[in-house]
Design a protein that fits this description.
Helix 4 packs across helix 5, helix 4 packs across helix 10 and helix 7 crosses helix 8. The chain has 354 residues and is of the alpha/beta class. It has 2 domains: 167 residues, Quinone Oxidoreductase, Chain A, domain 1 (Alpha-Beta Complex); 132 residues, 3-Layer(aba) Sandwich (Rossmann fold). Strands 3, 7, 8, 11, 12, 19 and 20 form a 7-stranded mixed sheet that branches. The chain has 11 helices and 20 strands. Belongs to the zinc-containing alcohol dehydrogenase family.
């Protein structure tokens, strides 16, 4: 077993370092993974640039990364369903206690949950990482490690579409064509949405969205009024959408989402923005538009694996940049600049393949 464990560590706002840490020893219910592919998420960059997200503040060095896959190299004494050599996708949120949220199946809402790369919990952007074996999922032979890592953002989309009630024939507006908006597009289509319209400020993102199956693309110009945009959405679709999935967190976009959604419909808030926002709440109330929040995901990994393995969803086009772990700072800078869609770090020096 290697003695060094190269890790991407955030020490404080703007201070991102590569450093060696000890190789962890798995407990009875844990497995040690040799990490292979880890995607960079917007939240990783936000912690790097700002030192905090909401009340989660970096107060001590923290390993980044939570979109991950790897290979089992050691198993704890009590682990029965995994063995050395298994390729797995990692679910980064692990309940610490069997509280009411765990019992009713909404463990993502547990206030004490462990979550990779959310202070004070270390993430898995490293060469070796130990994880609760119950939150490691075997990858079928026809899926790559990168697809395994992309199950994390795909899970956000599955959870969002479940919360929204996407079903056969749904018409859906997606605000924002970044990585999360694009996976929401893929999942909404797979769940039966008949028509999907997606918005963004950047033409190149909308071009990708069209290739991934978006029926309509709407370029948003700064200064466009929310009600004006909502009317444009209605004109393009031929009717107001049943469901809007808001992936930007921008106040103006949330306003558009509410105005655009048809009476009796659902707005799901996925994007994280300011703690306070001015929104047309009376408009939503008088039209019985439900506004629902999304916090990460729960019970999504098996569904995501089945979606990918069956070919119903293809996330491969989302990966536009790859860097070896040793070039992590350059990879983070690429993500910060908004280049491409998904930047993937390759943690295994001996296997840089997808």
């Amino acid at each position: 077993m290697a003695q060094e464990n190269l890790s991407v560590v955030l020490h404080s706002q703007g201070d991102l370092r590569l450093e060696n840490r000890p190789v962890p020893e798995p407990g009875p219910d844990e497995v040690l993974l040799k990490m292979h592919s880890v995607g960079i998420c917007g939240s990783d960059v936000h912690f790097w640039q700002n030192g905090q997200i909401g009340h989660y503040k970096v107060t001590k060095p923290m390993v980044l990364g939570h979109e991950a896959s790897g290979r089992v190299v050691k198993v704890g004494a009590a682990v029965r369903h995994l063995k050395v050599g298994d390729r797995v996708a990692v679910e980064p949120g692990v309940p610490r206690e069997m509280d009411e949220f765990f019992k009713n199946g909404r463990y993502n809402l547990s206030p004490s949950i462990f979550f990779c790369a959310t202070p004070p919990d270390d993430g898995n952007l490293c060469q070796y990482y130990k994880q609760n074996s119950n939150f490691c999922y075997k990858l079928p032979d026809n899926l790559t490690f990168e697809e395994g890592a992309l199950i994390e953002p795909l899970s956000v989309a599955i959870h969002a579409c479940r919360r929204a009630g996407v079903t056969l024939g749904s018409t859906v507006l997606i605000c924002g064509a970044g990585p999360i908006g694009l996976v929401c597009l893929l999942v909404a289509k797979a769940m039966g949405a008949s028509r999907v319209i997606i918005t963004d400020l950047l033409e190149e993102r909308l071009t990708v969205a069209k290739k991934l199956g978006a029926d309509f693309q709407l370029t948003v110009k700064r200064g466009h009024g929310a009600q004006q945009l909502a009317k444009t959405v209605e004109d393009m679709l031929g009717a107001q959408p049943h469901i809007t999935i808001e992936c930007t967190g921008a106040e103006s976009s949330i306003q558009t989402a509410i105005y655009a959604t048809r009476s009796g419909g659902v707005v799901v808030l996925v994007g994280l923005g300011a703690e306070m926002a001015t929104v047309p709440l009376l408009n939503a109330a008088l039209r019985e538009v439900d506004i629902r929040g999304v916090f990460r995901y729960c019970n999504t990994w098996p569904t995501a694996i089945d979606m990918l393995a069956s070919g119903q969803v293809n996330v491969k086009p989302l990966v536009t940049h790859r860097f070896p772990l040793e070039q992590a700072v350059q990879a983070f800078e690429t993500t910060r600049q908004g280049l491409g869609i998904k930047v993937m770090l390759k943690c295994d020096q001996n296997d840089q393949n997808p």
